[in-house]
Write a structure and sequence with these properties.
The protein is 30% helix and 26% strand. With 310 residues, it is an alpha+beta fold.
Length: 310
């Protein structure tokens, strides 16, 4: 898709010899264009809901809300957050491999069932000679955490009082500290930094394991009560930013870069294929400003306005 968009942009520019856009410039414009369209999906979703409430939208194949929701839900992810003392780091490239555009909710696994260290290793197994897995009531679906690597797996079956079968092989050495956390979750309420002080000051309102709360402060999320402080206890449900698109090449032919998607840093657009035309129009606007050609910018704006009016 990204190569098609670039070829179309270059074709429009070269038609009247407006100029040439380098791969590095194109990648910058592509990143901004994708982000613009991504943010428009959220505002368009709000408009679609308002139209439905006002009975101005159709149903079945004429439904507006559904396709928009499917697109933005493609960026909805759930990840465990890395703990830092009594706080948890917000999703980032370092902690979760992506960045959060909007945090939808926080899920708290408040019940730590078992903890200890493994005594031996086996493929997709947690083996601990001092454990009492069966007696503690561990069941399929509970979460096992490797505290040394911050990797998680789910319990497939309780093989014995000392052995759990997991859906991933997260214990490769011994001894390794582990936690077994109940799959049961409580959704934390988001409160302001000022309000959490007031809530904590009263025994009647202070957060607990049944009704947890959280505050967002800079790059950290504070969970209350503070007893919820282990990796594997907090899952964030959030919309992530789209991955940065990058058109890559490896060779030159007649002075022109040749597209090569096998490069390790290649990244296609993450928006639906039907947004190809809109991406071209957005990028042309940036190109027009770069080469100081108002005709290119105006062409992109006019075409985009016609799309929005449909």
């Amino acid at each position: 898709m990204i190569n098609q968009v670039r070829n179309t942009v270059l074709s429009v520019l070269n038609k009247n010899n407006y100029g040439y856009i380098s791969p590095s410039d194109f990648n910058l414009y592509a990143e901004n264009a994708q982000m613009e369209l991504f943010e428009e999906y959220f505002s368009n979703y709000n408009k679609a809901i308002n139209m439905e409430n006002a009975r101005q939208a159709g149903s079945d194949y004429a439904e507006i809300e559904g396709p928009i929701a499917e697109t933005i839900e493609g960026f909805l992810v759930t990840n465990f957050l890395i703990n830092n003392a009594n706080s948890f780091s917000i999703p980032s490239l370092v902690t979760t491999g992506d960045t959060a555009y909007y945090i939808l909710k926080m899920l708290c696994h408040t019940n730590v069932i078992s903890s200890g260290a493994n005594s031996s290793i086996g493929a997709n197994l947690l083996i601990s000679s001092s454990a009492q897995f069966t007696s503690l009531g561990i069941v399929q679906g509970d979460i096992v955490v490797n505290l040394n690597t911050n990797k998680t797996a789910k319990v497939i079956s309780v093989t014995s009082n000392t052995t759990l079968t997991l859906d991933a092989n997260i214990f490769l050495t011994t001894p390794v500290n582990y936690l077994v956390i109940s799959q049961a979750v409580k959704e934390a309420d988001k409160v302001s930094v000022g309000k959490i002080t007031m809530l904590n000051s009263s025994l009647l309102t202070q957060p607990n394991n049944i009704f947890p709360s959280y505050t967002l402060e800079g790059d950290y999320i504070n969970i209350y009560p503070k007893t919820i402080n282990q990796f594997g206890q907090i899952e964030a449900v959030y919309f992530r930013h789209p991955k940065v698109p990058k058109w890559t090449y490896s060779t030159l032919a007649n002075g022109e870069p040749v597209f090569n998607q096998s490069q390790p840093d290649y990244q296609d657009f993450e928006l639906p294929y039907e947004d190809t035309y809109r991406l071209v129009m957005k990028i042309l606007q940036y190109c027009g400003m770069s080469i100081r050609e108002t005709e290119v910018t105006q062409f992109g704006i006019i075409q985009e306005q016609q799309i929005n009016q449909q």
